[in-house]
Amino acid sequence: MCAPDRTPSTLARYTTASILIGFLSLWSYHAYPPRDATPGLNAPMHSAAAPLALTAFYLVSLPSLKWFTEKHLAPKYDMKLLLTESMVIYNVAQVFLNGWMVYEMVSAVLYRGHPFIGSRSLSGVAINSGASYAVWVHYCDKYLEFFDTYFMILRGKMDQVSFLHIYHHTTIAWAWWIAMTYSPGGDIYFGALLNSLIHVLMYSYYALALMKVSCPWKRYLTQAQLLQFTSVVIYTIATAYKHYKYLPHEAIEGEQPSLGTYYFCCVVQVFEMVSLFVLFSLFYKRSYSKKNKGGGKSHSPAKESEDQCHKAMGEISVAAKEAAGHAAKDAGKLVASATSAVKRTNAGSRVGAM
Description:
Elements: H1 10-31, H2 49-73, H3 79-82, H4 84-111, H5 125-128, H6 131-144, H7 146-154, H8 163-182, H9 189-210, H10 221-246, H11 259-293, H12 301-353
Helix pairs in contact: 1-4, 1-6, 2-7, 2-8, 4-6, 4-9, 6-8, 6-9, 8-11, 9-10, 9-12, 10-11, 10-12, 11-12
């Protein structure tokens, strides 16, 4: 008995792509408010109920999507072919989206007066430069990136949907919500800028891999990721010191959050950077161990092309793991020391006032 033809029709493929475009349009409607109404700055930031609802939906939707795919989609369609156009559209959209964010933040620093370092201002240039507006869009993109996991499930790549992968996609949304809620101005832009730049390289790599096109910057992705992490940690250490040494420590209503609040955001950022590398290092260590136990079976060119972007992430994580651990420990010690110093200063001020 002949196996049923699972090749999706052109109509099915483009219908799937149209559904994705609909989701992208809905996301854009909510992610791009008027520039004079940037949430967290000159408009109210939504409460924790929003990330709670969205991340809870994400977690619940994963097993539901797995069941639906295995029960109704995979038996009827070749999912890789069905999703080809959709994945190209998604990755290209991410390239343009992250490219726009890079442009906005670099322009804010170079041409619109946004300070490179040493500000947690919530007024003036923080609003006019547009940097925090781009960071708001960057925060919203963390929810759009849930599609990274959805595409893995739809294509049956359940070995890539690890606990740590889900953990990272869930917590990174909360990390940026914390930043936009408690310290949405000034130096917040730097981590978003470098992360967006890396995403331009990574998502363009994914798109080229899907189209079977060689990626000219593939060999530099590991160095770029290492440079991103190192730069963010160094910047965090420098800004923590600068805020402690040269800027007022107290909160000023409508002008800046307190130093303690800002340090809290710094700790969250460093923690998320470390969790990113731990996520991939553990995931790929397990994946490569299974491959070695399997006798190092060779893959077809199509299989290698399909998975090359994921292999690149494995190479990145292995190279960065040790550097990440040491840098994170140093940053944590600095932030802890600075926080203790702030407490001692405040205590001394209270005693002197008695």
